[in-house]
Write a structure and sequence with these properties.
- The chain is α+β, with helices and mostly antiparallel strands.
- It has 2 domains: 6-222, no CATH class; 306-387, no CATH class.
- 25% of the residues lie in helices and 20% in strands.
- Strands 1, 6, 7, 8, 9, 10 and 11 form a 7-stranded antiparallel beta sheet that branches. Strands 2-3-4-5 form a 4-stranded antiparallel beta sheet, with no helix packed on it. A two-stranded antiparallel sheet has the order 12-13.
- The longest helix has 16 residues, at 371-386.
- Bound molecules: heme C (HEC) (7 copies).
- One heme C binds next to helix 7, helix 8, helix 10 and strand 15.
Length: 387
Amino acid sequence: MPRLPLGLLALTIWGGAPSHPTANARPDARSCQACHQRIVASFSRTAHFQTSAEATARAIRGRFSEGHNLLHTRVEGVSFKMERRNGAFYQTGVDSLRGTSRTESIDLVIGSGRRGQSYLYWRGGLLFELPASYLTAIGQWINSPGYTDGQIDFGRLIIPRCLECHTTSFVLLEDRGRVRYSREYVLSISCEKCHGDGRAHVRYQASHPTATPGKYILNPGRFPRDRRLDNCAFCHSGDRDATKPAFSYRPGEKLDDYFGPPSDQEAVPDVHGNQVGLLRRSKCFRSRPDMSCSTCHDVHRPQRDLRALAGKCLTCHEISRHKMATTIGSRMISSCIDCHMPNQPSHAIEINTATTQSSLYFRSHAIGIYPEIAATVLQLHKEQQRR
Ligand code: HEC
Ligand code: HEC
Ligand code: HEC
Ligand code: HEC
Ligand code: HEC
Ligand code: HEC
Ligand code: HEC
């Protein structure tokens, strides 16, 4: 992403007044807990809920112990060191040849850590990305996306759109001609991101304890398909140009009124972050006007069980009619997803440090027939059996 001048930040508040003047009075998941205990308990274990947090030992996945807390670069003498002191966390860029260094604290964490995390620090009421991110699979610190290897640079400004996808709310204020984020923000992706403001609902249900169905709350399950998809596409359709201020979109509204055209109308949608564009290409989606993300996903619980997810395919497909049923045999359920929704490398995120060069892999939502991948899966299985 290109680095943005401060002036552009100001543009994003053209609406003027913040949309949530009383941010601190807003309910979070806790205010739903009394009545939706099961949902809140399982939701707190999801990637959505864990995708942003204040920097605490629990939230930070990156390692600080001796031998694991360094990021070496290709430039001689330049490295980054991660440290924990008196309960606070820091990143320091050191240029030992020039004898210079710069230290900033880790203030906020972005990313559940399933793949990795980036870290932000406050400066003058604005947020900036720290130069070192952490990659879980290799257990190493890497250059943060957008930073050049070997430069001691802490200058990448965090724009509202980044926070819009990874947090519940931030408000950009204009304060005596200067732009800053309000300190009244809500981290993590919470219920209201998909259900809208829940205050009226909480008030009503509390004073009408026997009333069903629930009132004054949005249920995306009742939206028409396009709005149901928009609800997820808001964050799962990749990079799109905003035409309205960040944090103004509300569930149930038409996404095209807030963003330029999605990238799936351009070249190939990237497997990172554009599940909507990829799913749209699949025959399943095109043949079934009722299919949406919720056909397979229950966003109130972690979505990692490949067998359970394969079970969702069987609401429409029959194993007994599979052309390769005998060849596949007992692998039918356990490899279903690997054959038809293979993990593929993202071109949007490539890792490039002094010691590591690789890509991150994401599950493709272009459900389809991938003959070569299927052959590899079957071959691997044969080899495992022979052992
Ligand atoms: C005082 C109890 C109470 C609280 C607090 C509460 N709810 Fe509900 N909610 C209910 C009841 C009762 C229903 C109707 C029965 C059901 O669907 O479970 C309901 C239904 C819902 C529905 C389905 C509505 C529909 O049209 O199908 C959603 C979504 C919902 N609540 C979300 C929330 C969220 C988000 C919060 C927190 C901001 C919350 N609720 C807090 C009691 C409560
Ligand atoms: C990422 C979006 C998203 C978030 C975040 C989210 N929900 Fe939902 N919720 C949905 C969708 C989509 C449905 C409709 C599911 C369907 O159609 O099967 C739904 C349905 C519901 C319902 C209706 C009953 C049911 O289980 O289908 C309740 C109650 C509910 N959500 C409560 C909550 C609460 C409480 C939270 C926060 C702890 C929350 N939701 C967070 C997307 C979300
Ligand atoms: C406000 C932005 C936002 C919205 C709205 C949203 N997501 Fe997400 N979603 C994310 C982010 C960010 C992640 C990655 C979180 C992480 O790992 O840090 C994610 C992760 C996921 C995952 C991976 C979960 C896992 O266990 O790894 C699934 C599945 C998912 N989203 C489905 C949905 C569906 C379905 C909807 C619509 C009902 C939806 N999301 C709406 C931002 C959003
Ligand atoms: C358009 C929405 C969107 C924007 C903007 C966005 N992200 Fe994400 N981000 C996602 C989604 C969705 C995922 C989950 C990846 C997936 O499975 O496709 C994700 C994944 C991540 C992860 C990996 C989390 C994990 O453990 O798997 C990190 C770290 C991250 N984003 C940081 C950032 C930062 C920092 C910014 C801003 C500079 C940013 N993202 C901007 C939607 C967004
Ligand atoms: C809501 C129903 C539905 C669900 C759920 C569903 N599909 Fe489909 N799928 C269809 C329909 C309809 C077609 C097109 C008609 C056909 O070829 O049978 C299709 C086609 C396909 C095809 C042929 C694709 C091609 O390009 O020729 C494959 C492979 C497939 N589905 C696999 C899956 C897998 C794997 C899952 C689960 C991850 C899944 N489907 C979930 C309805 C569904
Ligand atoms: C036909 C079933 C199906 C549908 C429909 C579906 N998904 Fe998925 N999704 C899966 C499976 C299977 C996985 C793999 C889970 C894993 O690898 O842990 C997955 C994984 C994901 C992930 C994590 C990706 C990664 O590689 O980390 C995200 C994000 C996601 N889905 C979002 C969505 C969104 C948004 C929609 C709607 C546009 C959607 N999904 C529709 C089956 C589906
Ligand atoms: C070992 C890999 C593998 C596994 C496991 C697998 N498939 Fe397939 N599947 C294939 C291949 C390859 C084809 C193409 C077969 C052909 O056209 O001869 C195919 C074809 C299909 C088709 C299109 C059938 C048609 O009539 O054109 C559907 C639908 C499908 N698979 C669904 C599934 C579902 C659902 C599962 C899991 C529950 C599954 N497959 C498990 C490899 C696999």
